[in-house]
TrEMBL record:
Protein family according to the UniProt entry: Belongs to the pterin-4-alpha-carbinolamine dehydratase family.
Gene3D superfamilies noted in UniProt: Transcriptional coactivator/pterin dehydratase
Example GO biological process: tetrahydrobiopterin biosynthetic process
Record's keyword annotation contains Iron: no
EC number(s) reported in the record: 4.2.1.96
Name this polypeptide is given: Putative pterin-4-alpha-carbinolamine dehydratase
Organism: Modestobacter italicus (strain DSM 44449 / CECT 9708 / BC 501)
Top EC class of this enzyme: lyase
GO molecular function: 4-alpha-hydroxytetrahydrobiopterin dehydratase activity
Length: 98
């Protein structure tokens, strides 16, 4: 199945207006979740991993005690694509605010 093309910087800027918890640009976006405990942060990684597997699109995730940094970019396209935005929306649906 073909992957979606890289988004223009203008398209990314417009999309980020609807993703206020995310920052970045055409080279990738990220969000940091702050969970109530270390165990909850570990669980969040597992939940996000399950969503990513269903999409076959995998973010980078870093765990620091109660914080999980989620970063996404389509390496094969050299920047942000609609897949990355879809993943960001799924993360926001799972963790609306932190």
């Amino acid at each position: 199945m073909p992957r979606p093309p890289r988004l223009s910087p203008d398209d990314v800027a417009a999309a980020l207006r609807d993703l206020p918890l995310w920052s970045g640009g055409a080279d990738g976006i990220e969000r940091t979740l702050e969970l109530p405990s270390f165990r909850a942060a570990v669980e969040a990684i597992s939940v996000i991993a399950d969503a990513a597997e269903l999409m076959d699109h995998h973010p980078d995730m870093d765990l620091r005690w109660r914080k999980v940094r989620v970063a996404t970019v389509s390496h094969s396209e050299g920047g942000l694509t609609e897949l990355d935005l879809d993943l960001a929306r799924r993360v926001d649906a799972l963790y609306p605010a932190s």
